[in-house]
Design a protein that fits this description.
By secondary structure, the chain is of the alpha+beta class. The protein has helices at residues 34-50, 67-78, 90-99, 103-119, 127-136, 141-148, 151-166, 195-206, 218-224, 230-237, 241-253; strands at 4-7, 23-29, 54-60, 174-179, 186-190, 227-229, 257-261, 266-270. It has eleven helices and eight strands. Belongs to the SpxH family.
Length: 271
Amino acid sequence: MNNIQTLQEPTSVVSVATANKPIELYIFLDPLCPEAFAMQKVLRKLQLEYHHYFTWRLVLSTELTSLNCLSNRVKGCVSGVELDIHHPVLPSIAIKAAELQGKRAGARYLAKLQEYVLLNHQDVNSYATLLKIAEDVQLDMSEFTVDFGSKEAARAFQSDLYIKCEMEVDEVPSIVFFNECIEDEGLKVSGNYAYEVYEHILQEMMAEQLVRQPLPTIEELFLKFHTLSTAEVAFIYSLPEQIAERELKKRMLQQKLERLQTTHTTLWRLK
């Protein structure tokens, strides 16, 4: 596979791999790119089955310019000078602002942002919409509003773009695998591959047989990931989509889930 390459860990990257979780994943995504949605089911299943082997870091990889100028405009919006602004950099800045409240907060924010995109709720390049998403995932709104216009969020996004450049990632999505030994080369996997490819890479880097964690029940799955598509549920449980949909409909009738139909997919959400 030509899109799998080895590379040295950049000196500017601080590893957080530990003896308990010796593998570190750098996940390069453009959060609103269709390929990111395709990658999501793979990442979720990896987390469910093999989270005890790895830590991960999301690296936003949107190609954008004029970040400093935009940051000043966001500050103006926060102070009330502008009622709303629209710009394609805003979702990435919003994710970084959410991450300042913790990795889980950032992950919740990203998932809800992608849900908005799939449901075509509102323009996610809008500052006002991004504030609404923060409310939906119950972030600290005063903190989020300040962070949105802060240098810290802008620098965090700039840092992601720098890491992307330093690791020579020219295709998204991509995943770069490192182990706890700083001298060993990392493995860069560009593009989307079958789940078994990522399993094999984890096993090769661990140099031992992987122990797969049992999958949660569907109810437990939706407590962890509040919104999933029929295709994601089928993928996670290795089921035909018709059977997955039947199981999801049962839970809808039990008032546990609600169904959200879009043009291209069916989403299910914890009720």
